[in-house]
Amino acid sequence: MKIHLLDYLVCPECKGSLRCHPQEGREGEVETGALHCTGCAAEFPIVRGIPRFVRGALSADKARTADAFGWEWQEFSELHDSWETYEQQFLDWIAPLTPDFFREKVVLDAGCGMGRFSAAAVRFGAREVIAIDLSDAVESARRTTAALPNVHVVQADIYHLPFARPFDFAFSIGVLHHLPDPEGGFQALVRHLKDGGSIFGWVYGRENNGWLVYVGNPLRERVFSRLPRPILYGLSFLVTAGLHPLLKLLYRPADGGPVRPLASRLPYRGYLTWLAQFGFRHNHHVVFDHMVAPTAFYLRREEFAAWFQRAGLEDVQLSWRNQNSWRGLGRRPAGVATAQPAISSAPAQPATSSGRAGGTARGEAGVAAHGEPVEP
Length: 376
Ligand SMILES: C[S@@+](CC[C@H](N)C(=O)[O-])C[C@H]1O[C@@H](n2cnc3c(N)ncnc32)[C@H](O)[C@@H]1O
Description:
The chain is α/β, with parallel strands linked by helices. It has helices spanning 60-75, 83-94, 116-123, 137-144, 182-190, 210-222, 229-254, 269-275, 280-292, 301-310; strands at residues 18-26, 29-37, 43-47, 50-51, 106-110, 128-133, 151-155, 167-173, 193-204, 314-321, 325-331.
């Protein structure tokens, strides 16, 4: 942990300030030690250079999610491509944002996994990026970002963030739909924005994902996510071995090649054409990721839009990605009271699992898949 990260940290329980007690480290960095709260005397260890704010027992669903993703991001921890390629992928995920947007911003990557997008944000010119994750994925994130002095990795829960200062920008890619209360997680992030700060989220869409809601998701919840990880690893390998030739021999050539007229007939074209550009190991990771998560919600456009509206955000832009998921960007109004008091004026409240996700599809029956949604 870089010592100057302390400027950003606060006790997630009482919001008291923290004092650092290093045991091992080097100039400006703590490898082993502890953070002590001057308010409630809570202690947060620093282990392998990462401050750990996940204390006590997690709820059963969060514990299973943390276990699943901790395993995943430590197994699939290598970079598959050049940094330039990761930057392009990141831009595709966060469209319409561009590299310029990041310049000099203090950024929160909420649910960072192996930290690939935290690194991309810093490479785009962010002043500091704080990468948080609930799971042991933080071990991989620290390795990925070790050479980047202004990326900080913190083990923490989105619902109980340990931050004293609000952020210019918070993003969360592929995380909110895995939370027990997705909207609660989103609103917790909004509370950590500066006035005028922006938030971006990417979530699974409900539209075009009927087969996942009715077939894939129940199988994942009841079977795949419960398998011993090495068995799931092998099973996902076999699924990838079946899928990969289709991607390379059918979807890839159909994307602009001589058999282009075929493209419109291919099922799941947007998503699988995107996947077709990657190598086997990358796609094995993607397939494993789809099978391992114990919890996943699929959101309709209007449900996702309602999160931004209820948070009082402005300049909201939603867009459809790969015809099966939603990107959302919004800005916290400057100097206007919103439904979400910022951390500077009121401490963040832990979100509840009150089901504020409303009618969000978690494999629910009786809902017809929409056609291609109309862009906002
Ligand atoms: C599918 S991964 C996405 C990782 C990363 N955003 C990326 O796209 O490379 C979802 C991540 O969310 C994290 N996560 C799940 N629940 C969380 C929570 N309550 N607080 C923080 N992170 C959480 C998981 O540990 C996992 O690393």
